[in-house]
Please model this.
Amino acid sequence: MKKVKWGVLGAASIAVRKVIPAMQRGACCEITAIASRDKKKAEEAAGRLGISKAYGSYEELLRDGELEAIYNPLPNHLHVPWSIKAAEAGKHVLCEKPISVNVAGAKMLLATRERTGVKMGEAFMVKTHPQWLRTREIIHSGGIGELRLAQCAFSYSNRNPLNVRHRVEWGGGGLLDIGCYPITISRFVFAEEPVRVLGALERDPEFGTDRLASAILEFSSGRQSVFSCGTQTAFYQRMHFLGTSGRVEVEIPWNAPNDQPCRIFIGEATSGEPRVEEFPVVDQYTIQGDEFSRAIRGEREVPVPIEDAIGNMAVIDAVFRAAESGRWEKPETI
Model:
C-alpha cells in the first residue's frame, strides 16, 4: 500500500522519543511535518528526526494539503479541541490516550467523526501488541477456565512541578495518565463493559492531582478487575488474570520494550511452575501506526475506535464519581 503522510501536533516527549521514530520504521507511515507553538522547537525536532517540514503553529500544519493524518500527543485537555480541528481540516486523527478528560468530550469526537467522515482512533498501542492479542486468545479459548479476576499494579515516581501530569486543569493525575490502561485492557479481555465500579483516590496536597488511585470494576456474574496506580511510588507494572483452572501473568504489560522479547506466564491451577511464552522483539508504536494507516487505506477497521474510547472514559468518570461518593457507581452508557 501507499504510505500515509502524517503530521504531528506538538513536540511532546512521547512523540519525539518513542512514537515518531517508531512510525518512521513502519511500512505504512511517512512523517512529513511537525508543528510546535515554538517554531524553533519544531525545527529542532524536525532536524533531529529527519522530518521535512516544521511549522510554528498547529493551524499552519492543518492547512498542509499533503497531510492525510494527524497524530495528536498534546496534553490531555487539548486532545478534543485539536482533534476536532484536525478532523474539520479533513485529516484522519490518531489521538493519544486518554482521548478526553471526560466522557462528554469523547462523545463530541464521535459526533465530529460522523459529521466529517474521517477515521479517528485512540492511541492505546497495547491493544495491537502481540502479547495482548495472545493473552486474550488464551483466555477466550478457555485456557485458564472461566476468567474470574484481573489484578494490576502500575506505578512510577515523578514530582516535577513542571510536568503536565501534575496540572489538574490540564487533565493531570494518575487515573487519567496510567489508570486508563488496566481499565481498557480489562474491558478488552473481559469482552464486556463493567456494570459498576468502586474507587478511591489520594491527592497530592500541592498539585491537587490524584497520586494514588485504586478501583474495583465489577463485570457480569460478579467477575472483577482490581487495580491500583501511583505517580509517586516505586516504578512497577504487572497484570494478572485468574481463572477457575489457571492464570496468565503479563510481565511488562504497558511499556513493552522495543529491544528485547516480551513474556507472558501461563500457570495451571495445580502447578507451581508456569510455562513461558516469549514474543519476538517488536515496537508497539510501529504496529500502532501501521495498523491505523491500514485503516485509513480501508484494509482493516480502526484498532481503537471512538466508541471504545467513550466506553473507557465512561468507566474513568465513574471511578472519579465513586471516589467522591464512597458508593458503587454505574458507568454511563453510549
In short: The chain has a mean pLDDT of 97. Residues 130 and 279 are 7 Å apart (CA to CA). The longest helix spans residues 306-325. The longest strand covers residues 232-243.
